[in-house]
């Protein structure tokens, strides 16, 4: 909470002081002020240009919406006491069913963003939305389960369970995704507040701290600080078979994660625009999703300090599920960062006068 309070104060100073002065100067009729324009106003003709590989970006955003609604609904159900903390299967089953049901949100938002970016092939975006996150989850499940079967482990999922998961995917998730994509594609597109130039503007050299890797690491470590204490208890609950019952704290930590991710991403997006770097779409995704890298590194530290599983099957199980969890966390936090940045960018460029 202290970290979030500090970040909120920093963002408030940027928005209430620096940004307000920028907008006042940009909207001034003084000729000298107009000649001295620099920073984020100069890239107004490129900031809403469709990003590279916008099909994949649209699918990432749609899957992020799906994961967000699944997470918030699962936490709400657990918080209200409908899921027993001692029953691991009920929590996992609820997450799986909600993920499948919110396939409609994945298709709807993927198609909506794809169409807003200028995409025209509804069939293409449906195929990508259907196969992306569910396909990755299925691939990891099959690899882990194959290793468990080869090791004759009792933790291996039986054939009937795998068949049931496939039935949920093909009979429920795919039809809902197709239906969502149909309605999302027909929804009114998101129109930019300013006109996009035909010729892209050249991006000047960026300072080292605004380059992709340093900025992502800075954002990731700030976001990771907000969740790493609760992550310790979650890891203990999963791998040491302890009962996890503090869903109220978990809900608060999730809210802190959302707020921290949004604020850090907006702050870095503002710095990039001031440096005349208008390619913020993908950068906001991997800047916000960089916390998943630190979660995976924490998982490696947790393994060598607390677990040290001897068998090959246990090793594959641990790192397979950790990699999948971090992948889903990247999709979730990346979507949160993109949506926050899009709202911020639309707001500031709508507030200035463009000649």
The residue-averaged pLDDT reads 86
Number of domains: 2
Q: How much helix, percentage-wise, in residues?
A: over 70%
Q: Tell how many strands the DSSP assignment holds.
A: 0
- Overall geometric form: globular
Strand content: under 5%
Number of helices: 13
Q: Radius of gyration in whole Å, from Cα?
A: 22 Å
Q: Strand count, sense and closure of the main sheet?
A: none
Helix-strand category: mainly alpha
**Which ranges are low-confidence, i.e. pLDDT below 50, for 5 or more consecutive residues?**
none
**What is the string of helix and strand elements?**
HHHHHHHHHHHHH
What's the N-to-C terminus distance?
43 Å
Keywords: Membrane, Transmembrane
Organism: Coemansia helicoidea
Protein name: Transmembrane 9 super member 2
Q: What is the structure about, briefly put?
A:
With 355 residues, the chain is mainly alpha-helical. 73% of the residues lie in helices and 0% in strands.
Structural commentary:
This is Transmembrane 9 super member 2. It comes from Coemansia helicoidea. Keywords: Membrane, Transmembrane. The protein has helices spanning 2-26, 31-35, 54-79, 88-101, 103-116, 122-150, 159-186, 212-225, 228-239, 247-274, 281-288, 291-307, 312-350. It has 13 helices and no strands. The chain folds into two domains: 52-190, no CATH class; 205-355, no CATH class. Helix content is 73%, strand content 0%. It is mainly α. The protein is globular, with a radius of gyration of 22 Å.
